[in-house]
From TrEMBL:
Keywords: Cytoplasm, Phosphate transport, Transport. It comes from Candidatus Symbiobacter mobilis CR. NCBIfam families: phoU_full. This is Phosphate-specific transport system accessory protein PhoU. One of its GO terms (biological process) is phosphate ion transport. Homodimer. Residues 22-108, 130-212 form the PhoU domain. One of its GO terms (cellular component) is cytoplasm.
Amino acid sequence: MGDKHLSTQFDSELRILSGKMMELGGLVEAQVRQAVGGLTRAEAPAGEDVLAIEIRVNAMEVDIDRDIANVIARRQPIARDLRLLMGISKATANLERVGDEAVKIARILRSMPLPEPGCCVLPSPEVQQEAHLALGLLRKALDAFARLDIASAVAILEEDAAIDREFDALMRSLVTCMTQNPTVVPSGLDLLFVAKAIERVGDHAKNVAELVIYIVKGADVRHTPFDRVRSAMR
C-alpha cells in the first residue's frame, strides 16, 4: 500500500508539472500571436502586452525548473519517468525561447518604418502566412507532448520543413523588393529579422516534438535526418 501511495503521489506530481508546462505553452503562443498582429498595422503594436507576458513566462520557467529539481531529489526517478522530467525541463526552455522571439518581433514591428507611398510592396502577407504555419506547428507540438503521441511528433518534424521553405521564398522576395527600390531597405531588413524570428518559433516547436520521441522511445533524434527518424519510428 505504501509503494502504491508513493506511486500515486509521484504520478500526480508529474501531471502537475506537465500541466504547468502546457500553461506556459499557452502563454507563449498568445505572445507570438499578439506580436505578429503588428504586421497588419490595423492597430497599435501590442509590444507592452507581449513584454508583460514575458515577465510571467520567465517566472514560470524558474518555477518549473525548481519543481523538477525538487522532484528528482526526492523521487530519484529512472527510465521513462526520468526522461519525462528531463523532457519537461527541455520543453520549458524551448518555450521560454519562443517567448524571447515574440518579444523580438514586437520590438522590431513597433519601431519599423513604413515604406513611402508608391514603393515596392513588402511581402507582409507572406510573413503572416509563415507566422500562421509556425503557430500551428507550436500548437501541434504541445498537443503531441500532452498525449505523448509519437505519430504526431514525427509529422511535426516533417511539417517544420514547410516553414523553412516559406522563409527561403520570403527571403528571396524581400531581396528582390529591396533591390528594386533601395528606399524600402530599412523596412525590408526589419521584416527579414521578423521572418527569421518566426522561423525560430517553428524550430523550437520541432524541438518539443523531438522530446516526445525521446520520452517515449528513449531515442535522441536531434540532428538526425528526417528519413532516418521516420524509418526508425515505424
